[in-house]
Predict the structure.
Amino acid sequence: MKRIRYTKFTGDLASSFGLEDLMQALSDFLLDSGFQDPRSRFQSLDGDQTMENLRDAIRQALDSGELFDEEAQEKYETLSEDQVEDLIDQIIQKMQDQNFINAEEPKQGQGEQGDGPEMQARFEVTDKAMDFLGYKALRELLGPLGKSNLGRHDTRHEASGVETNGSSKQYEFGDNLNLDITATLSSVFAREGFHVAAGEAPGTLHLEYQDLHVHQSDYQSSCATVVLLDCSHSMILYGEDRFTPAKRVAMALAHLIRTQFPGDTINLVLFHDSAEEVPISQLSRVKVGPHYTNTREGLRLAQRILARQTKDMKQIVMITDGKPSALTLPDGRIYKNAFGLDPLVIAETLEEVARCKRSNIMINTFMLASDFQLMQFVQKVSAMCRGKAYFTTPENLGSYLLMDFMSRRMKTIH
């Protein structure tokens, strides 16, 4: 949405719009997943994060008319080509000064010549920029839900704490000493009444250990989440980009957890022919990989990550569009079969799901496909580990995922 500014235009075009607006305009370029969308204004740039491509992306954003107000737009349209290049230089410098990007020197090897992509100056998106894009994605996803104030994971249990719920309990060793004075005094009076013993000052109370009562608060749990993201090549096939929306959802979920659930953790695992953990901060650089889907290897890595966590809740959020079609053999070789549901691959994958169940790890699957056999497989996975299966599309993936994350309270802990 175009921002309307009411300040007087000073003639400095580089300062006539916020860098946040520019980052939002460039988000499709910065989060490119390898899908050549013919509708994207950046489709000719191949998503390669070179400084030259960044200059072209900024130029296209400026030409779109979405950044300037009317007066600044008229001024921009009178600039010569050299003046536009100078303006882009100023904007890039501001992006570096405000820590939205880091510029990298071109990689030069001994005796190497040429101007290929590997020889060009490059840039990387900073944690600050990723955090901003995650916030924007979260706000856009939460808008249609009508959600604004988010809390922590409520449970059916009670505990002693600071945020009370009106009830109290007898003090036990280890409780926070958030003393309920009324209940404590009531216990004393009920036990011995009010009297003055010989030699004691008037109003003396004999307070004993069993008289102590503390306020109760709602016990709120913590959760360890691993986002298991399918980056096999099918995520950008068939004329649809499914990977970029999944990346945006992962960014939004990471921002939600960091800001609203500070006791929680989130890790990201990519799976394709094999699987690897990727820092959330590197999510913008991730693109689709090999063709096969090694779901079991992704589940194995997710379990190793969750085994290191000491949270009440442990869950795997799996986003995929394809059937398991690869398997890592004991000798390290990758067994692949893309035709149908291979019995060996399915059996080994379900065995890994069973291990998740034995470790009290819930698996919620967000399926970006509607193949009947695949639906049956996903439903079986969900039934085995008390999870849920959502058959969704890239357009409403975020709504389903965030609604599930926020509405699920700690009902499974007894």
User: Anything to note?
Assistant: The longest strand covers residues 213-221. The CA atoms of residues 116 and 164 lie 63 Å apart.
